[in-house]
Design goal:
25% of the residues lie in helices and 28% in strands. By secondary structure, it is of the alpha/beta class. Bound molecules: zinc ion (ZN).
């Protein structure tokens, strides 16, 4: 079976400027995520950063990406609209899955693909329990009924996303706030999974359940082999007789 070409995009700014973040993710969040994904023999994992040439995603790499992970926060506005449109189109035409992580809820690709401002409520870092609300889902495979993150940034409802197609994880914070923490969306012929944990100064990506969820989500979001082309436009109908379908 063909390997899944995974690209982890990270704006890679906090890790350079804040000691606490540098201590947790010395080579960047992207390198840390690649570190645990590399154990999967069915994945070919590359990384890309905002300050790389072509903002990390030259056409050749984007067109060779089956699943794109996105971590951004302080530099959302620096991402070029032209690149965002290429990402949106690739998702809508079913060529690439998209996994926005944590603060990517306010990123340009998130807004372009989901059609929302992505606003949410937020507050101090605290304990979060992630509840497994849809254990039969492929992304929840191997995840217990709940797990604890000792410290995570409070992200809370109301979270202005479209109604998810599937709500897989719910977050409960010790202040009493709740959050739709893991949700899927189908856009065009593509698949999107948003996952809330992953604040840059917390340790979420060290947690084995978080690692398993991201791993599962990549396998879920990989493009289907449609066997026919899907355009980013309304195509003409071409009539087929049943004989042609049967052939
Ligand atoms: Zn954060």
């Amino acid at each position: 079976m063909k390997k899944i070409n995974v690209t982890i995009w990270n704006e890679f700014r906090h890790e350079k400027t804040e000691d606490a973040v540098k201590a947790l993710y010395p080579d960047g969040i992207h390198a840390f995520i690649k570190g645990f994904l590399d154990a999967n023999e069915d994945m070919n994992v590359r990384t890309a950063c905002l300050d790389d040439p072509d903002q990390g995603l030259p056409d050749a790499l984007l067109e060779d990406t089956d699943v794109l992970l996105w971590w951004g926060h302080m530099a959302h506005r620096e991402v070029s609209d032209a690149l965002v449109e290429k990402i949106r189109k690739r998702v809508f035409t079913g060529k690439m899955g998209f996994i926005p992580l944590h603060s990517a809820h306010k990123s340009k690709p998130f807004a372009a693909i989901l059609g929302t401002n992505g606003n949410l409520s937020w507050g101090r870092d605290q304990k979060e329990i992630i509840w497994n609300m849809l254990p039969a889902h492929e992304i929840a495979a191997g995840i217990p009924d709940h797990f604890l993150l000792e410290l995570e940034e409070l992200y809370s409802e109301p979270f202005f996303i479209p109604q998810p197609d599937e709500l897989i994880f719910g977050g409960w914070f010790e202040d009493g706030h709740i959050m739709r923490s893991g949700a899927t969306f189908y856009r065009g012929a593509g698949k999107v999974f948003y996952f809330q944990p992953g604040h840059e100064s917390c340790r979420a990506y060290y947690h084995p359940c978080v690692q398993r969820i991201i791993t599962n989500a990549i396998r879920w979001a990989r493009p289907n082999d449609f066997g026919f082309a899907i355009e980013d436009a309304c195509p003409h109908v071409t009539w087929k007789t049943t004989d042609e379908f049967d052939a």
